[in-house]
Amino acid sequence: MNRSILIVICDFFLVSLLAFSTPDISKLSQSGGTPVMNMSNLTNQVTARQDVTDAMRLALYEEQRDRTNIQAELARAQQIVGERGQEITNVQSQLRTAEQVQANLREQEASLRQQDASLREQEANLMQQVATIQAAAQSNLAAMTSQLIVSKEQTARTDEQRAALEQARKQLEERNGALENQLAGLQQSNQAIQAERATLNTKLQVTEVQRQSALEKATQLQTEVEAQREVNAKLADTVKTLAVQSNNMASNLAQVVQEIRENRELTPNEIFEQLTTNRAMASFYGLKRGLFGIDSSKYKQTQIPLASDGSNTYAICHVQDTLLTLWTPGQWEDLSGTLVHDAAVFPIDSISFSPQDPRVVMIPIAAAEGKVLNCKTYRLAEDPFKFQEAVVAGTQDNYYGECKFQLDLETPGYLKMDRSSLKGLFGKFNPSTGDLVLSKTGELLGIMVNNNYCMVLRALTPGVQVRFGWAGDNPKTTQTLTDLAALVFQMPAKLQ
Q1: Residue 380 carries which DSSP code?
Q2: Does domain 267-495 bear CATH number 2.40.10?
Q3: Residues near 299 by Cβ (< 8 Å), separated by ≥ 6?
Q4: pTM
């Protein structure tokens, strides 16, 4: 708090105190009676004094607080001043160092200037010496040139005499050479005649030895030919045996390669890529009678794979991927469908329901139709439990991923999918009813009958059959679907 304001407040409180403490003399005594003390005035005076005291205490406290703050600020200012003084000292020290360095540089500059002047003086002396040397060299060159001209004239006369002597010497050497060549020729002819005579004698002896050796070799070769014929016969038999063994090895190798390919673990991307390019498009059309006799048309499409158990081929899907339902069958007036892949189109004549679980639907495919559709026919997994994980792929939505499965002893023929281990690789991976389950080797394990359980396809055995075509009011189809729904309701609750 500002001191001037504090002084004004204290003055105000002192004036107020004096005003309250002035006694009312007129009321202290009455005529003929004792003075009476006014308690209300005393109370007011005590309260006023207490207020003044509290105000002065508050002002004193604020004054002490301000003094403490000022002292703290003063200490911080002194600390900052000390730091600034230290910084100034450091800067002054650096400035002195810089001045010393600058003085050293100036001394070095003066020294360099002196050296430069000395070098220039030396350069001038050297240039003078070079000029002197060049002048002496030119005078020497002129003298040597005149001497060279005189030497050339003398050399020309000497060369003519030398050429004549050289020509005479060459003629003598040529004559001596011709005589030496004739002598050497006669000596060579004599040696050649003697060598030829010795060679003929040696050849005669060698020919005799060779004739004897040839007779011995002919006998030996005859024996070796007979032995070689026997060896060739044995080798021919060995070659035949090796050819048979080679064929067997090639066959075994092909089987091993095929087995390796079949047992090679594929990535989920490879499995799904094969599935997307090898599924046929199944289209279902139907005319269903309503409650009031009104017919309504139905239409549905789904991607469906082909599977084989080695003897029969079927297109496999869940019943929900068709127009039929097991829970509210209704009455169908007409049912039809087609299978399409690439440019091939085939009608669907009938569908069958799996006797193990009627929710799995099988559409029979003839051998000729399978070839024309040109789809990969998936084999059923021979060992469904070879791997701990399987690949789950959606039929309606293009999602797929890996999922672990477990064996449930209470539901033989089914696998329980561990949804806590789902690893989606493409799309929104949320496995549900009707999804295909494939092994890590690309074989077909089964179909998800609900969101948690997969029915394992051990064999493709058709059960109850529903034929397509115009049937009018077909109570038989309705009754068949109702009976199949009852079979599903009799299953354990976890499988429904």
Answers
A1: B
A2: yes
A3: 283, 284, 285, 286, 323
A4: 0.48
